[in-house]
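Hi all, posting the design record for the shared folder.

TITLE: backbone redesign
STEP: 1 of 1
STRUCTURE INPUT:
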């Protein structure tokens, strides 16, 4: 396993039991309202949360729309255990790698990825997998870190020393380039607070699919 993934798995296995109640998830929590606001404007029957952690954002969305099918995936065994304790058997939860999503093509109407994309050492592969398992005209919502250019460049230098498996904070230009490259369209990048952004993109299936 890639060293970044191993660091992330160990760190979040350690955080899992206390994750919802401590400062270690404050950045993710700050994004909930903006992600949920976007979700409320999307019609969907199936949703996957990649990097679902303890399942809190699934729990919030499910309480608003209990008709859809919900799925959650995380690299951390303990995070999935915590999510299972919270969500029970009504959500399909699995320990797996975001680079190899264990789902068939064209399965989901909506994919969320909140505050975990900066942990992925192969972001194009992850986006390609998200593109593959999304239905045509399905939506991807990414909640992520935002930093102005100078701060971002400094933080990216020091991220390789992170114990949590952080890899990189991406700029707006980098996000749009990557999403376009794998086939997403109608990309909307919004800075939502001083340290966060939300990216919404629509899937467009490639001809070979």
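Okay, here is what came back for every position:
SEQUENCE:
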């Amino acid at each position: 396993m890639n060293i970044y993934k191993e660091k992330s798995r160990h760190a979040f296995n350690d955080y899992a039991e206390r994750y919802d109640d401590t400062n270690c998830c404050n950045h993710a929590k700050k994004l909930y309202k903006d992600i949920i606001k976007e979700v409320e404007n999307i019609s969907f029957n199936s949703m996957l949360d990649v990097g679902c952690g303890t399942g809190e954002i699934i729990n919030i969305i499910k309480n608003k729309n209990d008709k859809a099918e919900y799925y959650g995936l995380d690299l951390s065994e303990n995070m999935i255990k915590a999510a299972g304790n919270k969500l029970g058997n009504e959500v399909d939860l699995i320990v797996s790698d975001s680079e190899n999503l264990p789902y068939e093509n064209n399965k989901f109407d909506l994919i969320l990825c909140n505050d975990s994309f900066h942990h992925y050492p192969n972001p194009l592969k992850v986006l390609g997998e998200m593109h593959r398992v999304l239905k045509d005209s399905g939506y991807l919502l990414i909640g992520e870190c935002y930093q102005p250019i100078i701060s971002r460049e400094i933080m990216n230098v020091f991220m390789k020393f992170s114990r949590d498996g952080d890899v990189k904070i991406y700029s707006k230009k980098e996000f749009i380039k990557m999403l376009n490259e794998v086939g997403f369209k109608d990309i909307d990048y919004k800075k939502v607070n001083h340290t966060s952004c939300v990216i919404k993109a629509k899937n467009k299936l490639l001809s070979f699919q």
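COMMENT: The radius of gyration is 16 Å.
Let me know if anyone wants the other runs.
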